[in-house]
Q: What sequence folds into this?
């Protein structure tokens, strides 16, 4: 039976291949993951408690234990191009139960940070950035809600950046410092035209 | 005691989904907490926390800096923050905690904040309102019970704790030890019982709602499948309502049920209410005062039982 996750054939083949190729290993990756995640990923002894605790595991091919192994072995490409990297709901169940006191969730977050540096990121993550750049809110107000707020005795817009847009320039300056808006716009345009 | 007669005062950090989708959570929190001696003062100019799934995944440095800006606004008011959302707790509490304890992170954040004439000093604390309600240093279960004028007698209510208030527990610093039990906590059930309702246990109570980490936007079917599993477990216990302490989880369970109906063809019609909304009802606020008609799933069946 053909096993496929619907990814391009070459990627699928690569991800199915469980052999270790030393030339694929980048020791810097292990160090970078540790520095960004601020957790001792290299202490992992592969018990699998993380995968056993994971709500995403039973309904996908996402196996957090596998990503932990990749972190230890420095398998940068394999980690960052695997679309399963984005299926962690960050529930931290694995982190609560890890017998080595590692925080696997933060290892995933570190890998996602490193993926973004290579423009690997789902578009929906970037749209939250552009929403906040525009209004200060990831989920902005709308007219139905404004009317409802008024009806229950609240101001039509909450006392956040929505009511005080003079706070927006500082937010934009922070995002621009990291060139986040420019990168988000560029990647969204490349993907969606 | 302050001029308003309130025993405690907090800068009220709203986040996004409470004020912009479930405004009843905002208004019920302000009114209910006032009755319990806690004044919630608007945190002017606050932004998104920012969304820990999206921002944390893209660049943790931006995540720290953006959360720090919200923290500085409260520092300038010389007030601790109170908030109503687990996702916001992850950003605001956790970044405050990280910056207080890591000089390298604090210096990096202040380098950026300097550009907007701000400085993070680490002078305030951050609390979730559920924590304030449970902790007798602030309010406590007995006072919550005493404030009830319309007990929710006869209603079977299950609790969804969500993730980021309590996990990872090794990083959290609750004064009440009982809040650190993340395998099988019961402190929210105590609060539900204080409102006169019957708290109901169900299988795999601590499972995530499925929405976090950007998964709701990345793969909605995957996220809903996690939600659906929880709804199946809740249905087994014939609960009248589910209560949560996170508007994002609430969105996933409430609007999510409509999406589950569309995508999987299953309906549950389970009313989903933030604990602030429940508390408001129990203190005599009307469903209209709470804007419960904004919920995706009608709360009518539940309201008929308790009103």
A:
């Amino acid at each position: 039976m053909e096993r496929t996750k619907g990814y391009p054939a070459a990627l699928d083949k690569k991800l199915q291949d469980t052999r270790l190729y030393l030339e694929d290993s980048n020791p810097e990756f292990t160090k970078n993951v540790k520095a960004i995640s601020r957790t001792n990923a290299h202490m992992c002894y592969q018990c699998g408690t993380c995968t056993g605790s994971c709500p995403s595991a039973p309904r996908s091919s996402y196996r957090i234990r596998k990503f932990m192994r990749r972190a230890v072995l420095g398998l940068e490409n394999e980690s960052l191009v695997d679309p399963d990297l984005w299926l962690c709901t960050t529930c931290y169940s694995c982190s609560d139960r890890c017998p080595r006191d590692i925080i696997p969730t933060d290892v995933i977050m570190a890998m996602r940070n490193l993926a973004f540096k290579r423009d690997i990121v789902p578009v929906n993550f970037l749209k939250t950035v552009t929403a906040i750049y525009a209004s200060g809110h990831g989920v902005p107000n709308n007219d139905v809600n404004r009317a409802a707020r008024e009806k229950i005795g609240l101001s039509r817009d909450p006392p956040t950046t929505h009511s005080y847009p003079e706070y927006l320039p500082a937010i934009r300056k922070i995002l621009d410092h990291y060139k986040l808006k420019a990168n988000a716009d560029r990647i969204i345009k490349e993907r969606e035209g | 005691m302050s001029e308003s007669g309130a025993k405690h005062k907090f800068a009220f950090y709203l986040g996004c989904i409470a004020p912009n989708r479930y405004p009843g959570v905002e208004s019920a929190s302000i009114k209910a907490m006032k009755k319990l001696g806690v004044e919630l003062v608007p945190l002017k100019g606050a932004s998104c926390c920012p969304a820990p799934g999206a921002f944390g995944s893209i660049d943790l440095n931006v995540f720290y800096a953006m959360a720090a800006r919200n923290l500085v606004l409260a520092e300038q008011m010389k007030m601790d923050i109170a908030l109503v959302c687990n996702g916001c707790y992850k950003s605001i509490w956790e970044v405050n905690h990280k910056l207080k304890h890591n000089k390298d992170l604090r210096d990096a954040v202040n380098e950026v904040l300097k550009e907007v004439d701000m400085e993070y000093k680490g002078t305030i604390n951050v609390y979730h309102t559920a924590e304030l309600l449970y902790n007798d240093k602030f309010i406590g279960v007995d006072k919550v019970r005493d404030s009830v004028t319309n007990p929710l007698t006869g209603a079977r209510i299950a609790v969804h704790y969500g993730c980021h208030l309590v996990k990872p527990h090794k990083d959290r610093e609750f004064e009440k030890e009982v809040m650190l039990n993340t395998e099988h906590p019961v402190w929210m059930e105590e609060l539900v019982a204080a409102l006169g309702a019957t708290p109901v246990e169900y299988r795999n109570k601590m499972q995530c709602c499925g929405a976090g980490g950007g998964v709701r936007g990345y793969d909605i079917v995957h996220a809903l499948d996690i939600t659906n599993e929880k709804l199946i477990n809740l249905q087994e216990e014939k609960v009248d309502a589910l209560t949560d302490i996170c508007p994002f989880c609430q969105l996933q369970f409430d609007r999510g049920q409509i999406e589950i109906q569309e995508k999987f063809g299953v309906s549950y019609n389970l009313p989903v209410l933030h604990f602030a909304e429940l508390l408001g009802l129990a203190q005599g606020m009307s469903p209209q005062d709470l804007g419960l008609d904004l919920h995706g799933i009608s709360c009518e069946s539940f309201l008929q039982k308790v009103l």
About this structure: The two ends of chain B are 34 Å apart (CA to CA).
